[in-house]
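Batch job 17 of 40 flagged for manual review because the log was empty.
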Amino acid sequence: MSPLLDVSDDVRAEIGDEEADRLLAGENAPGSYDCTSCRTPGNPEQERTSTVLFVGGETAVLAFAHASCIPSQVVSVSEEQLQGAVRSITGETAAPAAPAAIAAPGGGADPGQAVLGVTCGQILIDDELHPAIVVEPTGPVVRPGSTGPGDDFLPLLIEAGFLPVTSVSRAPARLPGWSVLVAMGQLHAVLQGDPAGGQPSAWWQAHQPLPLTDGWRASANQRHTVFVYAAPAGAIGQQPREDLLRDALEKAAAGGLLVSAAMPLTGT
């Protein structure tokens, strides 16, 4: 009996017709797997299964996911991210995520100009939980090419399409072209679309993939959308609980120091 595998045209183009046909015939298909999205077990002989190809600079890794979680696709990641995903597949524990460089929207920024703190949590809106990411620089962010004092973090994001938050109780508007990359159940990057139609680039990228809670992943897989909030340095701080994070977001919004956007998941 052939496995219930889905191999997209993009995946076939990357792995070749011969390998794709072997997969579909069951020669190289796994007997069972941990879904690369929800991390629960799957069986291609009993349920439709997507082939997901992670492609780095020098390495490619073929993974499997429930078709109900994500479709078959090719996910482009950095070589460092892919090695982190390989460690996840083989059961090695990833190191805690370190702060990562942030590039100003639109590109051209010095990647060392600011460092972001990233907090993941769920936020309650209309009695429903939504996955959220809160980003906050450790210091002021200046506009590329500027040498003067000040903090241009929020103006740069607003120019890129983020909208000021007046009430945390309302869902953010979707920002076209941007997305959140979650691979192997870990947060890897926030991607910014190329206005010229090229490949998305990493606006924020983790030095090490950031582990996510089961609740966060389940909510993201259900909604396929992540709410991204951003505030200037010192507006949010490190909050140990989601209720305290919510309070900090509301205070930042009340002070005109919070912007947001809703972004789809890329990858898993």
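Reviewer: the log was empty due to a logging misconfiguration, but the result itself is present. Confidence is low (pLDDT under 50) at residues 88-113. Unflagging and moving on to job 18.
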